[in-house]
Design a protein that fits this description.
This protein is mainly α and about 260 residues long. It has nine helices and four strands, in the order ααααββααααββα. The two termini are about 35 Å apart.
């Protein structure tokens, strides 16, 4: 049922267009008016049909709502981590490392999605996509975050051991999909001179997350989580050059430059 509902949403977003929807509504109103005589005395002139127009989307409000939904999903990840950790009586260094790594991973994802992105989509420029496409990409990105929240809870529960194979692939696949969504959001909208930066920033993270899946089944959960935290940190701190900084660039800690974030995010 969930798959059917998601399929209906996606097909509706892709198939429905502004002109087609308005035309169908106008045709339906005209057909209904033709089934009954116009009000008033006989032979009275029929009133002109009402003109239909689309309601404009408040993009700022939509972005705030979608961003809040991402915060709720990430909060569910925090709950998963806390619940898994609270069931352990033997607190030690591996458990602390796994719990801190999971929390840091969620915090980093929050930074990429909300501070360096729009509508909860990492590195998406404001008003760069039409609302239906933005909602579609948001749905895909949030799906990866839901999978990430589930896998992190399992990682904390198996902090001493390797993750079960399915949970490990889910963790790596969720992060690879999230990084790929950021590349998809940024690359088509970036200027030609910036596309090399986008590829150098995003593709290594996707590649490492995918490559981590097969051999990572032999890694402890805390090690896998730590590698993924490093990938998120790379995305936040990546600086493609030393010379100069764009007027709209950001400074991280007053020393490390994030040059392109404001231009494509």
């Amino acid at each position: 049922m969930w798959a059917l509902g998601i399929a209906v949403d996606i097909v509706t977003l892709l198939v429905s267009t502004r002109d087609r929807t308005l035309r169908r509504m106008a045709e339906g109103m005209a057909a209904r008016r033709g089934d009954r005589p116009p009000p008033g005395p006989p032979h009275a002139a029929a009133p002109s049909p009402p003109r239909l127009s689309e309601s404009r989307v408040d993009t700022a409000h939509m972005g705030e709502r979608l961003g809040l939904y991402v915060i709720i999903v990430l909060g569910e990840g925090v709950i998963q981590v806390i619940d898994a950790a609270s069931e352990r009586d033997d607190w030690d260094l591996p458990l602390a490392a796994t719990g801190l790594g999971a929390s840091g991973l969620l915090a980093g994802v929050c930074t990429l999605s909300l501070l360096y992105g729009t509508n909860g989509i990492p590195h998406l420029r404001k008003d760069a996509l039409a609302p239906p496409l933005a909602m579609l990409l948001h749905a895909v990105t949030t799906g990866f975050l839901v999978a990430l929240a589930t896998a992190l809870g399992s990682a904390v529960a198996h902090f001493h051991d390797v993750l079960p194979k399915g949970q490990h692939w889910l963790l790596c696949g969720a992060m690879a999909g999230y990084f790929a969504a950021g590349v998809v959001a940024a690359l088509p909208l970036a200027e030609r001179a910036d596309r090399v930066w986008v590829l150098g920033w995003g593709l290594p993270c996707v590649a490492v997350a995918v490559a981590l899946a097969p051999p990572g089944v032999r890694l402890a959960a805390w090690a896998t989580t730590g590698i993924l935290v490093a990938l998120v940190g790379w995305q936040i701190l990546y600086d493609p050059g030393r010379a100069g900084m764009s007027p709209s660039g950001r400074w991280w800690g007053g020393r490390i430059r994030i040059r392109r974030t404001a231009r494509i995010g």
